Amino acid sequence: APAVQNIIHKNDRSIGICEKMFVLLIKV
Amino acid sequence: NTSNDFEKLLEMASENITEENEGELIEQIRVYYKYALNGDIEALEKTVEKISSLSEINRKAINTADKVSKKFAVAGSWFVVFWAAGMFFLGMYYKRVFLKDIIYPYEEINAVLNANLTGDKFRRCSGHEAIDEINGIYSKINMILDKKSAGLES
Predict the structure, then answer these.
(1) How far apart are CA B118 and CA B58, in angstroms?
(2) Pairwise CA distance, residues B33 & B50, whole Å
(3) Local mean pLDDT, 10-residue blocks, chain B (154 residues)
(4) First CA to last CA across chain B, in angstroms?
(5) A8 pLDDT exceeds 90?
(6) Comparing C-alpha atoms, which of B16, B51, B45, B57 is closest to residue B30?
(7) Cα(B130)–Cα(B102) distance, rounded to whole angstroms?
């Protein structure tokens, strides 16, 4: 279960990064 | 500034690769985003498409991990149920062994010796369910009591 939690945390972080990239693109 | 921020985000994404194709998509975003930030519509579309794909890959991975964790949770619950049932039956078994091989023989020997001391010459140890070692002790006690009774009679 900790390994699964780790995977979810990493993927969630990647999605957060994607959202920030979208925000930067929208600003432009 | 926007370009720097974007580059930093791409660096963070590069350090956080967990899925297949993520690295490839990040590299493609790295190629397109500079043109997109300069107003190239086609590059903007490509960048948005690649970021969406990257996001989607991670979302799918989360769903898969979630399903796996739920399966583990169900398996864990069943394990606890069977473990508890197993421990219950094991406890019952050892309780029976403890009573049959230790407590009952102790009570029987105590009762026989008390009976003999209070004048009952005929009371003997008995217990067909007892293990061989206990039956051996019963036999020896009975033989001693028999000898004692025979001695008293003669």
Answers:
(1) 86
(2) 10
(3) 89 89 92 90 93 94 89 92 97 94 94 95 86 92 93 72
(4) 119
(5) no
(6) B51
(7) 9
Report the complex ipTM: 0.85
Chain B residues with a Cβ under 8 Å from any Cβ in chain A = 2, 5-6, 9-10, 12-13, 16, 18-19, 22, 29, 33, 36-37, 39, 44, 47-48, 51-52, 54-55, 58-59, 61-62, 65-66, 68-69, 72-73
Q: Map tokens 């619950």 to a residue.
A: B77
Rg, C-alpha atoms of chain A: 12
* B77-B80-B83 Cα angle (round to 5): 150
